[in-house]
Amino acid sequence: MLPVKRKLFNINIGAQAVSVLLVLLSILFLRTWSTLSIFTLVSLLIAAYHGLLIPLLKRLSPIVFLGSVIIILHTLVNPQNRHFILFFGLEGFNYGLITALRLLDIVTVTQIFMLVNPLRNIITALSWIHPDLGTVLGLVLSILPVMREQMEVTLNAQIARGLRIGKYPWQRIKAYLVVMIPIVIKSLIRAQIMAQLLHVRGYNSKREKRKISWNHTDRLVIAGGFCVLLISLGYGK
Amino acid sequence: MNKKLALTMVSTGIVINIIGGLVATTFKIPIFLDSIGTMLAAVTLGPWLGALTGLLSNVFQGLATDPVSIPFALVNAVIGLVVGFLAKKRGFTDYITPLLAGIILAFVAPIIGTPIAVYLFGGVTGGGVDILYAILLKSGNEIFASAFLARIPANLVDKLLSAYLVMAIIRKLPQNMKGISKGPNVAG
Amino acid sequence: MASITIRNLSFTYSGAVFPALKKINFSATPGQMILISGNNGSGKSTLMACLSGIIPELTPGKLEGQIFCGDNTDPKLLEDGPSLGVVLQDSDVYLLEEVYEELAFPLQNSGTNGLDLDKRIQEVASSLGLSELLQRRIRSLSGGERQKVAIGAALICDAPILLLDEPVEQLDPLSAHNLFHTLRKLVENGKIILLCMHNPIAAAPWADRILCFRNGELFEETIKSPEVAPSQLNQTNRWIFPTLLNQDNSNLTGAEKVEHSVLEVRNLTYRYDTQSGLENITLKVNQQEILALIGPNGSGKSTLVKHFVGLLRPLAGKVFVDGVDTEKVPTWELAKQVGILFQNPDDQIFNSTVLEEIAWSLFARGVPKSEALTEARKLAAEFDLQSMLDKHPHDLNRSLRQLVALTSVLITKPKILILDEPTKMMDLELLKKVMKWLENYRDQGGTILIVTHDMMLAENYSDRVAFLDSGRLAGIGMTGELLRLMKMANQT
After folding, report:
1. Which residues of chain B does A65 touch, with a Cβ-Cβ cutoff of 8 Å?
2. Nearest residue of B to residue A112 by CA position?
3. Which of A3, B58, B146, B187 is the Cys-Cys partner for B73 at CB 3.0 to 4.6 Å?
4. What is the largest CA-CA distance in chain A?
5. A183 to chain C, minimum CA–CA distance in Å?
6. Which of B91, B13, B102 is nearest to B50 (CA)?
7. B residues 148..177 contacting C (CB < 8 A)
8. What is the rounded CA–CA span in Å between residue C103 and residue C121?
9. Which residues constitute the domain of residue A196?
10. What residue ranges do the domains of chain C occupy?
């Protein structure tokens, strides 16, 4: 867990999530590069205030790369390019810039949410939407490392029996099957036993669907989200 | 289908999607192969649970690492539906059904995915497909059409290969696992 | 009052020809600990599945007869909670990541939350010795610890009826003793406890009734098994190593005797990220000998043998196979000379018939299909597998699957064979047959390295024994002599 200011810890995940969704919605109404850039700046400042800037930037770097490709590609070949400076089309540049900034904003907001809340908590919170939803994704979290290990073990066992991966595509595809099939079979067997465990441990709908009780801070946060939405609606015209 | 079994099978399908992609990377196969789990779930559990597996796969990936996978959940869900309905009608152990699945998906997946890709990414992927995309745009085609057409070749290869791999895997499963399926021919 | 009543219960798995349970009649009342023994496949687990409702809800098949397993107390007086606590045979499968969550799960399902939840978890954890492990990931626990977690999850809701399938399979004798003690107390408070064990010796003194399954039929044994003789206990017990570490091993014959060494490591060091591994091991395996590599779990046995097929490469030191330094040799090349049978056949089986699975190792080497299949048939016959060649390996029991895996390794006629914990999956009868074949293989020039924690196996078959402890070679020498020293050490 990253060291985040106490405040954020106490805010209910559900409230955060609602707020995030409202903010995301508001991004969709911003249409100029200036408003989108302001948004980016504000988000980064908020992240910095909470000590999340470095991890956030790390997570954003692939998006920045992608954004650059978007801008370059559209500047060069967007069919709506009419006005040019050398090869660079203004319409395309504008389109690319807006798209890239919008993408950046969307990812920034969601990544801040994900940096503040560990995955397990988010998945548990999903049970508010539907109790089985949290269960399914929770199971994924616990099965995944087991299967990763299984992949290693099976790969080793087959190589020790003489499996060679080979250079040609068809050899690699064959090798793929030799490794995947035992993994699939084992995971299906495991799925059956887990279903038995769910049964004998009494999994049912009596599992408390925790009542949503939002306190003052939570309501503020959601209200904040609405404000952002209203502001962007205003600017979006 | 017992609910508890459905839950664990869907979770397993999601994990197989991830592992399937991981093994492909390990063996340096230049194709995603990350919908193996969705297809397997669709064949053994039926189209709707298969679709759920696909959808939740993207939700999980989105929450765990890459938030922009979430909008594409719809595409993965459709993979489950198409494969599921085909398997129900024809079973998935012959040589023709995977071909049908691959071809249908090669067109259907981009149809659903392209609008999302255009809105979020301007149609760009950051990968080799962009070259084809750029060429199509340069030739004067509209953004949507270019993005759509550019995605078809890669999708064709990935979906066809995935479908045939799933067929090969199903064939090797022991009887009692094939029998989970509701499909009339798969339990054969 | 909780009770179990079964009348004329028969069950046939879907797709099977013969019934797994044949007209079983059985009943139990509160305050009874009932031990059910029988070979694998005799019907014990099937009965448990019927009692817990797994059959027919999750497992399809034909169920006939009547079962009542539960509590028929007036519902108004009944506390909300399940009437059964169940431990499944495979305790390596779990639902959640952390021990605490896994124990909390059944309680949450019955509506318990908050402080009551925590209190109960702490209570059960301490009775099983899990208190220190509550925040750990289940994945990082040892087999025995995982088994305790599974038992904890069954005990946690304080259900009146407990069904435990092989609950001490991975537990050390002390933990098993403590568990039986705990269960005995629960029985005295009025629970019904059913224990399934294919080896009932350890549990017999604690049980009120002993039943036995044979081929789907249940028999009540009126004679309780005799008390376990202390010497017998020591043999299946984990040994005490430290006393040997201080011994001077150079007097032991065989330690330095070099005939032709086919496997050798010199000053081998290997470290995992977690700091465990191997430290400075020097060891030789001679041609046509059977060497047993013994040590407690985690001592590095599997790590060591993986070096012989190139799955692991040394951090320091050298590895030699048949005199050749393995450094530049790829694994598939080493696999031509060294065959290794891993612990779990399900990690590698991927063909849909036994025949193909056995033949695959030859296909992988480029042998033409028909030739490979013929070879496979011949070898299968030597192990009495001819009648099963067309079956799917997963339709066979675990023991036979391990045999199939072994055959698929032997078909390439490796000069050196490594067996990693063969007793884990193979039952005793089959293992005896296999060892007989392998002794023949040895006489014809083969060399065998057996990794095991089973002393009896080492005693009965190996020429020399090497002890590994915490990644170091603690001793090596002729079997008879070393084991004699061991027994002396254990008795002091």
Report:
1. 126
2. B67
3. B58
4. 71
5. 7
6. B13
7. 171-176
8. 6
9. 130-200
10. 2-236, 242-491
Asked, for residue A123, whether it belongs to a domain, the answer is no
Asked whether the domain spanning C242-491 has the same topology as the one spanning C2-236, the reply is: yes
ipTM confidence:
0.88
Q: Which residue in the block uniquely carries the two structure tokens 């603690």? A: C474
SS3 B85: helix
Which helix (H) or strand (E) is A235 found in, with range? helix A216-236
What are the extents of the domains in chain B?
3-178
Q: How do A88-89 and C277-286 pair as beta strands?
A: unpaired
Q: What is d(CA A96, CA C333) in angstroms, rounded to the nearest whole number?
A: 54
Closest A-chain CA to B18: A144
Assigned token pair, C448? 């065998």
Please give the tally of structural domains in chain A. Answer: 2
Q: H-helix or E-strand containing C207? A: none
Interface contact flag, B15 A106, Cβ < 8 Å = no
* Distance of alpha carbon C187 from alpha carbon C171, whole angstroms: 21
Residues A139 and A230 in one domain: no
Q: Which amino acid is at C201?
A: I
Verify that A152 and A84 share a domain, yes or no.
no
Read off the amino acid at residue C24: I
Residue A17 domain-assigned (yes or no)? yes
CATH superfamily of C242-491: P-loop containing nucleotide triphosphate hydrolases (3.40.50.300)
B4, B171, B176 ranked by CB distance to C352: nearest: B171
Domain C2-236 indexed as CATH 3.40.50.720:
no
Per-state percent for chain A, helix, strand, coil, to nearest 5: 75, 0, 20
Run of H or E residues at C420: strand C416-420
- Reading the block at residue C346, the tokens are 């399900």
Residue A75 lies in a domain: yes
Residues A11 and A86 in one domain: yes
| A190 lies within 8 A of chain B by CB | yes
Q: What is the pLDDT along chain C (492 residues), one digit of tens a residue?
A: 788 999 999 999 887 888 889 888 988 999 999 999 887 777 888 999 999 999 888 888 899 998 888 877 665 555 556 789 999 988 889 999 899 999 999 988 887 777 888 999 999 999 998 998 999 999 888 888 999 999 999 999 889 999 999 998 888 888 888 899 999 999 999 899 999 987 788 888 888 889 988 888 888 876 555 544 333 343 334 444 444 443 444 344 444 444 678 888 888 989 887 667 888 889 889 888 999 998 877 788 888 999 999 899 998 999 999 888 988 888 888 888 899 999 889 999 999 899 999 999 898 888 899 999 999 999 999 888 889 899 899 888 888 899 999 999 999 989 999 999 888 888 778 888 899 999 999 999 899 999 987 778 888 888 999 988 888 888 888 888 877 777 776 665
Neighbours of chain B (3+ CB pairs under 8 A): A, C
Residue C272 forms contact with A (CB below 8 Å):
no
Give the CATH number of domain B3-178; options: 1.20.1070.10, 1.10.10.10, 2.40.37.10, 1.10.1760.20: 1.10.1760.20
Q: Is B63 on the interface with C (CB under 8 A)?
A: no
Is B145 touching A (CB cutoff 8 A)? no
The reply to whether B142 touches chain A by the CB within 8 Å rule is yes
Write down the pTM of the prediction: 0.87
Q: Rounded distance, CA A161 to CA C340, Å?
A: 8
- Between positions 132 and 171 of A, the ones with CB within 8 A of B are 132-133, 135-137, 139-140, 143-144, 147-148, 151, 155, 165, 169
Which of B3, B22, B23, B132 should be substituted to probe chain A, the one whose Cβ sees the most A Cβ atoms within 10 Å? B23
Minimal CA separation from C166 to chain B, in Å: 24
Q: Is residue A71 part of a domain?
A: yes
State whether A154 and C54 contact (CB < 8 Å): no
Interchain contact B19–A (C-beta under 8 A) = yes
**CB interface of B with A, residues 100-119, below 8 Å:** none
Half-sphere exposure at residue A123, Cβ-oriented, CA atoms within 13 angstroms: 22
